[in-house]
């Protein structure tokens, strides 16, 4: 029996990035292969036809490219950390239906997927935790989730499309707490400047009745984050669409234009913060 997805629900918002990865696998097979996205989509009782029409437009395909490339970038960061810390905790913050852990699993590391209870309920049905993997139902702002992470051999955290919907003060508190709790750990996440973040959140902010737009998280210059904590050993960033592998030559003229727009006007980046070792003040 297929798992039913209701329209206009949290479940549907989880399906959209998943379907984006499937669309990318179909349209850009030289760049992306995601059989797990196809498996999950095939297991759903959901009419994808309307979503397919929108996502296969020029603009829709670029949105799908962003989703798939973001997962690729964050996967790269997790894999780089695991080279030096093969038994580390791999922690997906605001995981949705993202399956990055299964893609980076080296047979020794441990995976933790954290999201709100209603999301984890869906995830447990569609992406049940595998060996050495745990799905945790928790609000990221409730720091009790940190007690569940075994970081004895290091920890790499990542978040895809999550912090745009957090207030800056809450992101700062979260990162400060993580830096104290997980020395020598790493957190990587996608970001853009305030202009891009406002575009991204426009519909959500209106629906939520939020007018204090400037209180929400964005990154004009990643170096500014260094001031947040003495426990940050370094803060760096790479281009979202070109920093980990340059897909510019593999896409059409319109998508090349959109990549330049993302790099220059909205500053779409993957930001990485490395936490200081325990002995460093």
Which SSEs are present, and which pair or pack?
Elements: E1 3-4, H1 10-27, H2 35-42, E2 44-45, H3 49-55, H4 58-84, E3 89-93, H5 100-104, E4 110-115, H6 117-126, E5 133-137, E6 155-159, H7 168-181, E7 186-191, H8 194-208, E8 232-239, H9 253-264, E9 269-275
Parallel strand pairs: 1-2, 3-4, 3-6, 4-5, 6-7
Antiparallel strand pairs: 7-9, 8-9
Q: Can you walk through the features of this model?
A:
- This protein has 281 residues and is an alpha/beta fold.
- It is globular, with a radius of gyration of 18 Å.
- The model has no long low-confidence stretch (mean pLDDT 92).
- Helix 1 packs across helix 2 (35-42).
- Helix 6 links the parallel strand 4 (110-115) and strand 5.
- It has one domain (73-275): Rossmann fold, CATH 3.40.50.150.
- The strands form 2 sheets. Strands 5-4-3-6-7-9-8 form a 7-stranded mixed β-sheet, with helices on both faces.
- It contains 9 helices and 9 strands.
